[in-house]
Write a structure and sequence with these properties.
This is Antitoxin VapB family protein. Keywords: Toxin-antitoxin system. InterPro entries: Put_antitoxin (IPR003847). With 70 residues, this protein is mostly helical. The protein is built from 3 helices and no strands. The longest helix is centred in the middle third of the chain and has 19 residues. It is elongated and about 55 Å long. The chain starts with 8 loop residues before the first helix and ends with a helix.
């Protein structure tokens, strides 16, 4: 079963420029989604074993305090 997705001409041109000669638009979109998932997965665990998560939480608390004090 196929579905149609409407895109404006600029979006179509941008997608067409990314599409390989032997790729369909479906192939292209599938590839882009797969690459995005791989990028997200490759970043998982980067902070493991560091104090970065706690520093990020503290920075968020500081920012929130700054907003709440206004």
């Amino acid at each position: 079963m196929s579905k149609s997705i409407r895109v404006d001409e600029e979006t179509h041109a941008a997608l067409a420029s990314l599409k390989g000669d032997d790729e369909t638009f479906d192939d292209l979109l599938t590839r882009l989604l797969r690459e995005r998932r791989e990028d997200i997965r490759s970043g998982a665990g980067l902070w493991e074993g560091t104090d970065a998560p706690e520093r990020a939480r503290e920075r968020r608390r500081e920012m929130k305090r700054g907003v709440d004090s206004r």
